Structures are given as C-alpha cells and as structure tokens.
Amino acid sequence: MDIEKFVTAIKYFLHYYLHSKRFLFTLIALLVLDFSIIAASIALPDTFRTVNTFLSTCVAFLLGVMYPIIFGILSGDLVAEDFEKSRAYFTFTLPLSKRLILLSKIIANIITAFILVSIYNVVAIISALAHYGNLISAVAPSYALQLLYAVAWILLSAMIGGFCKNSKNAIKLAVIFNFFIITTIGSVLAKLGMHKPWFILYYVYYTISTMLASKWRQTLTYTTSIGRVTVYIPPIPYFLPNSNNHIHSSMLHNMLHTLHKERDSLA
Fold first, then answer.
1. Which of 32, 96, 174, 209 is deepest in the core (most CB within 10 A)?
2. Claim to verify: residue 132 and residue 256 sit in the same structural domain
3. Dist CA 227 CA 230 (whole Å)
4. What is the pTM of this model?
5. In terms of C-beta density within 10 A (0-12 exposed, 13-18 middle, 19 or more buried), how is residue 34 classed?
6. Considering the chain, what is the average pLDDT of its residues?
7. Which residues make Cβ contacts (< 8 Å) with residue 15, sequence separation at least 6?
C-alpha cells in the first residue's frame, strides 16, 4: 500500500467534508442545542442545580437525539455517493484500490465527527466552568466514550445507506433507520420481554450520560425466595418522567424474573 497516496486521499475527503454544507448544518445544530441547554440552566436554576446535571443533560441530548440524525446526514451516503458519482474510478490520477478509497472516506468522516463532538463538548465544558466554577472527573472518560459511540453510528449509517445508490435516498434511509426504526425495535423487544439494552446501540447514550450524573442514589437490599438481592439505583435524569419508584420497581421485577429463570434452568 502506498502510504503517501492513502494519506492524500484522507486529506482530500477531510477537506471535502469540512467544506460541505452538511458540516456547517450539523455544527449549527449542535451549537443551537448547546446554547439551548445553557439558556435552560440559567432559566431553571432549581432543575440544573449542579454541574453534574448540566453536563449529563448536554451529553444525553447529544447522544440520544443528535447522533442518530447528524450521523445519518454526515455518513449515510458514505458508500452510496461512490455509486452515484463513480468517484472510486477517477478521483486520483494514480488511484488506490476501491477498498482503500472507501477506508480513507471512513477515516475522514470519523475525523470530521470528532471535530464536531469536540466543539460541542468544549462549549459545554466552558459553560459549566463559567456557571458552576468546577468540573467532575468523569468528563474525560465520557468524552472518550462519546467519540467511540460516534464511530459506531458512522459505520451503522454507512452500512444502512449502502443499500441505496443515490446519495439523497441513502441519507434519508440512514436518518429514518437511526432515529425511528432502532427505537421501534427496542420498544417491540421490550414488549416481548426480550429487551436487553446493552445489545441495542440506541440505549448506550443513557449509560454514557449517567457517568456525568450525580453519584448513584442508593443501594436497596431485598430478601426473596432465592436469597438476598442488592439493587444499585442509578440517577434518573431530570428530563425523564418523575416516576422513580415505578422505574426502580420495574428494574427489580425484571432482575428477579431473570434470576428465577436462571434458577429454573439449573434445577
């Protein structure tokens, strides 16, 4: 592999993405979200009492709402665009293989995503320091996981968009799949009792945003027919319905149901 040509390809596609209207659109959308949460924290001081709540809210809306949309837009036509424009055949005078050209596009797309996520986080962190005067240690690992999560959405969007040979259709399909179909799949699995959140990409955002929330609320211990069970109760973000007791009861019920099934299978 010619490293120089490969690096040139990455630079070419990075320049292409950074100067595209899509990059500008997604950057504006992220900044609007950032400043909206900042405005909410000022207008609702009782809701945003701590820096933990502010940062976890910023991350939750970024990952849960914006990621499915912006990466559908940025990465949905990552494969389809080559079919439409035949770029893989004539982009370079001495072309690389199609696989390396596609890999260079993916790397450039990931770098573009990292730039967007970094700008969003920098604005949130500066706002947190200005408003609350401090940060929390979980900011760094949360940021790293946000970048890793972005890679997952990029690859998923590119794969889904690859079923189309037209850029516009690929982007539409990726956004619809990311934002609606994955959520629907999760809801159906939950209704069928087959819900395993860690298997579904969309639910990862809650885990990452919870890292920035206040420390785990409490530990509850129950004595059941199969022994003592300890439940660690995570913080519930303010934007979820105020039904903590119902949530905790559901968690305990699901856990006990799983333990009973495992006991029966071993019997």
1. 174
2. no
3. 10
4. 0.75
5. buried
6. 78
7. none
